[in-house]
Amino acid sequence: MNRFENKVVIVTGAASGMGLATAKRFLEEGAQVVMADLEGQVDDLDGPLPEANTLKLEVDVSHSHAVENMIETTVSEFGRLDVLVNNAGKLVNGGIESITNEDWHSVFRTDVDGIFYACRAAFPHLVSSGGSVVNTVSVSGLGGDWSMSPYNAAKGAAAQLTRALALDFGRKGVRVNAVCPTLTRTGMTTDVIKDEEMLAKFRERISLGRYAEPEEIAAVITFLASHDARFVNGVNLPVDGGLMASNGQPPQ
Q1: For residues 22, 150, 239 and 37, what is the CA-based torsion angle, rounded to 10 degrees?
Q2: Sorting pLDDT into bands at 50, 70 and 90, what band is 44?
Q3: Span 172-192, mean pLDDT?
Q4: What is the pLDDT at residue 42?
Q5: In this structure, are residues 224 and 31 in contact, taking their beta carbons and an 8 Å threshold?
Q6: Of 78, 108, 123, 151, which one is the catalytic site residue?
Q7: Average per-residue pLDDT for the chain
Q8: Quick one: pLDDT band at residue 47, thresholds 50, 70, 90?
């Protein structure tokens, strides 16, 4: 498929995991892709990438000026912007008694402020192209977890921001949606996946009986960004193997 031929895409948090899989999927489908991540991350990517269609940028999305520069550089380099994937994220674990002020604010700066800054800067360019936004939220933005209050609060805010921006942007021809993954094999989840007891608990709750691969999340992101999803707007789509199909009662 070449659904994104002649399209320009930005993916934040693109150096690994779901971000890298998403960038590769867009490249496979013909897009020119800006891969943005923290300093030192984007220079150490897995596998070869087509240099002519790829621009790597060091960007900390928690800083508005860095995000604005990312958008300006993209448009200057490629002449347009069609898709913005806000994938960069940060997780801090712990009970509220152990969470510091900096822990709390650092998660919000990346997981919420980063989306706001990018959407604000990208908006006029996305209007010009009739483009779309896909945010990486989480099932943790749709329901609570134990000992993850900053992440739950931030992802919940990101889910609501997705809905609000879909209303504001929709009349201008720009769609805004989000994917909400459960446990996915990335660098962030290595410890969970290696913990056989914890992994067994996830398998019990996920009706498909396994965790997700990054490429499976990327496939849904590219669908939401594509013309195939042209009447989908304001959706926080669980990509969770059936996790949220449950009402929480244990299997029998």
Answers
A1: 0
A2: low
A3: 95
A4: 74
A5: no
A6: 151
A7: 95
A8: low
Residue whose structure tokens are 């994917």: 179
Q: How many CA atoms lie within 13 A of 108 on its CB side?
A: 10
211 noted as active-site residue: no
Q: What pLDDT shows up at residue 208?
A: 97
The whole-angstrom separation of Cα 90 and Cα 65 is 19
Q: How many CA atoms lie within 13 A of 125 on its CB side?
A: 25
| Exposure string for 9-32, b = 16+ CB within 10 A, e = fewer | bbbbbbbbbbbbbbbbbbbebebb
pLDDT of residue 250: 84
| pLDDT computed for residue 46 by the predictor | 52
Domain ranges of the chain: 8-184+212-244
Residues 6+ apart with CB under 8 A from 39: 58, 60
Backbone angles phi, psi at 103, to 5 degrees: -55, -50
Residues 31 and 37: their CA atoms lie apart, in Å, by 18
How many whole angstroms separate alpha carbon 236 and alpha carbon 252?
29
- The CATH superfamily of 8-184+212-244 is NAD(P)-binding Rossmann-like Domain (3.40.50.720)
Task: Give the Cα separation of 207 and 251 in Å (integer).
Answer: 10
H-helix or E-strand spanning residue 237: strand 236-239
In 3D, which of 145, 221, 143, 207 has the Cα closest to residue 179? Answer: 221
- Distance between CA 249 and CA 246 in Å, rounded? 7
